[in-house]
Amino acid sequence: MKLGANLSFAIKRWLGGDRLAKVVKEDLGLDHAQFTWDLVDPWWPSAERDRIARDYAAGFKAASVTIESNFGGLASYTYNHFLAPTPELRALGKEHFKRAIDMTAAMEVPTAGMPFGPYSADDALDPRRREDIYREALEALVDLSRHARKSGLTSLMIEPVPLATEFPSSAADSLKLMKDLDGATDIPVRLMVDWGHALFTPLFKEDADMDLWMRICGDYIGAFHIQQTDGLLDRHWNFTRDGIVTPEILADFWKRHKLTDQTYLLEIIYPFEETDDFVLEDMKKAVRLLRQAA
Amino acid sequence: MKLGANLSFAIKRWLGGDRLAKVVKEDLGLDHAQFTWDLVDPWWPSAERDRIARDYAAGFKAASVTIESNFGGLASYTYNHFLAPTPELRALGKEHFKRAIDMTAAMEVPTAGMPFGPYSADDALDPRRREDIYREALEALVDLSRHARKSGLTSLMIEPVPLATEFPSSAADSLKLMKDLDGATDIPVRLMVDWGHALFTPLFKEDADMDLWMRICGDYIGAFHIQQTDGLLDRHWNFTRDGIVTPEILADFWKRHKLTDQTYLLEIIYPFEETDDFVLEDMKKAVRLLRQAA
């Protein structure tokens, strides 16, 4: 299996291109990474932001680690973005992704992605509002695909999340989004499917099944976030913990579906209170377990 | 006890001044709140940001809910800010707080606060680097106190966090920070002490004791974050769950220390996957439990 790391595990701890690339390459032995906006905030003033972002790109390049994509993290996930209740908030969501695309271009990374964002509690219960806001979000994404192509990106990504108040959440939602965008965008939009989101049983029940996701929208999946989970919350635990995703299940899935390019990106989110030593050792152990199963 | 709510429980769910004030006033029956930057990002372009922030201020004012302070939330807590490893990142941390102060002034709220931020994993182990960066952070805060006073704020706040790699974490650290700032700032800087941080036993061991915090730095505590916890991680659970903080303990502490103004601000952070209905009912139940104990 093609293994990489989303850099969320490192936020606040190992900063700067050379330092973090060393962790990824030497400590973890990985050649692929997904950059997180939790390291560089797309809202930072663009000159400083791009200088800091380029330092990461240079450090990873020097260490021969490929940054495949740039992705929204915890900070970005805190706001409503494209599905917010007011036009002003939705415009800020669009501007946020546009700024992230600019930063991605500055890093010479080909892809940027994030979840669409949540509806407010009230809008989520109103089918008409949901539809109107969704239509607007599609238009925004089409616009952004034009900007992204001009900036040198080759694809965008949207990540389904395990909430009925957001969109897309299910595999069927995700397919709908892909069909609605097909042919309308200047560059392809693909899905970043997170195993822990797809296996969230309180929402998806018997459809919490990765094979079902492959049947329904497998053609559109650009890459996977992998995480350990109990299926009851969006845990983002590491594979050193017991749960319903084992390295063996991941390896079997990879083989059965004859995957080649859709990197398994370890997206582990540690409590900030965990010590740096613990996080590094735990990441090493998890990569070892995944390598053994592959 | 004087009870209020940090608005973290509401992020992504109940947005806009009127809507959220209704939740706080009518559903929860509270008259005091702490605004969170997870609702309005200080980095948003200032015209839109302040317009959206003022809408919250107006809604809360109309509902007679006092916003006592403006505070950094999850998104802000994701970055290194004042204790970051490079001058450029530290300048961005200072700019972040400056922008938050501007937003606070636009809302006519008297106080803004946040944690200082973490050192990188490497700097945290280097006493010389820690000291140099800390000195710079003090200067930045003195500068910002001048800006805050000019903007109409009457105090700033710093929140100790339960990590040896950040500062301040312990009660002794917190006292040191207060003494180092005493007389140097244009407006007072106070501590926002979080019960769940102070009771984090893996770091503080037998010093995980709120009475000890009162003895050591009680004079400087501006208000408290309250949360339920098992003392093993920074849980931010609600009081509907069992843990080491009970409403009775909170009430007894309030009485014994003859507290009057240092609001107990419920800071509950729900998994985003929890439903809106659950969150609202859970918040109501917790406020009821706290009222019963008072």
Automatic annotation (TrEMBL), chains A, B:
InterPro entries recorded: Xyl_isomerase-like_sf, Xyl_isomerase-like_TIM-brl
Give UniProt keywords alphabetically: Isomerase
Q: Where is the Xylose isomerase-like TIM barrel domain?
A: 27-244
Coiled-coil segments, which residues?
none
One Pfam family, short name: AP_endonuc_2
GO MF annotations, alphabetized = isomerase activity
Name-wise, this protein is Xylose isomerase-like TIM barrel protein
